[in-house]
């Protein structure tokens, strides 16, 4: 896919979902007797559901251009699973197409998952079905407003822990669960399974 020249901007994905579920066995022992419990740990990547993007227009030589979050006519990196709200001047409607320069380039406006019902606002929900080779453009003015969009997959979490934890008698702390996010987002933890006394802290410490 060939895009017109411009600076790139990546808007980090921000969505909340359960990325991983991990089953472990907790064993408590007093040296003679022992008891085990199966626990499922759910790892949640904490992110917002919507990102708002500022779109302006200014003059650049012989033609006007979009200025998106302070950058003139950038290529955009949008992450699958995220809803983006583009707030734009009403005189320069922000639209999408699979053709460079949209309707001005002989293409059609892309409308799947796109909401333009509110003047000055264009909302798009980027999903796995959003086509590659998407462009943004102004529906009124041609050429200088257009540039390309790259779709980015939502990075998964990496969970680091043993499948079995052991604890001595009267010990309430079982172990610590560690998960890393490739994009640097905050991570929270929850557990499910048999028994109601097991807990996991915000830092990933298992207790019972």
Structure description:
This protein has no helices and 20 strands. It has strands at 8-10, 17-29, 34-45, 50-60, 63-68, 71-72, 75-79, 83-87, 94-97, 114-115, 121-125, 134-138, 147-152, 157-160, 164-168, 173-176, 178-181, 187-193, 199-200, 205-207. The protein has a six-stranded mixed β-sheet with strand order 6-5-4-8-11-10, with no helix packed on it. Residues 1-18 have low confidence and may be disordered.
Layout of helices and strands:
Elements: E1 8-10, E2 17-29, E3 34-45, E4 50-60, E5 63-68, E6 71-72, E7 75-79, E8 83-87, E9 94-97, E10 114-115, E11 121-125, E12 134-138, E13 147-152, E14 157-160, E15 164-168, E16 173-176, E17 178-181, E18 187-193, E19 199-200, E20 205-207
Short description:
The protein has 208 residues and is mainly beta.
Please report which band the strand proportion falls in: under 5%, 5-15%, 15-25%, 25-35%, 35-45% or over 45%. over 45%
Which whole number gives the mean pLDDT? 75
Low-confidence segments, ≥5 residues, pLDDT <50?
1-18
Gap between N and C termini, in Å?
A: 54 Å
Query: Globular, elongated, flat, extended or rod-shaped: what is the shape?
Result: rod-shaped
Order of helices and strands: EEEEEEEEEEEEEEEEEEEE
* Main β-sheet, spatial strand arrangement: 6-5-4-8-11-10
Going by helix content, strand content and strand pairing, the class is mainly beta
Assign a percent range to the helix content. under 10%
Q: What's the gyration radius in Å?
A: 24 Å
Task: Characterize the biggest β-sheet.
Answer: 6 strands, mixed
* Number of DSSP E strands: 20
How many H/I helical runs?
A: 0
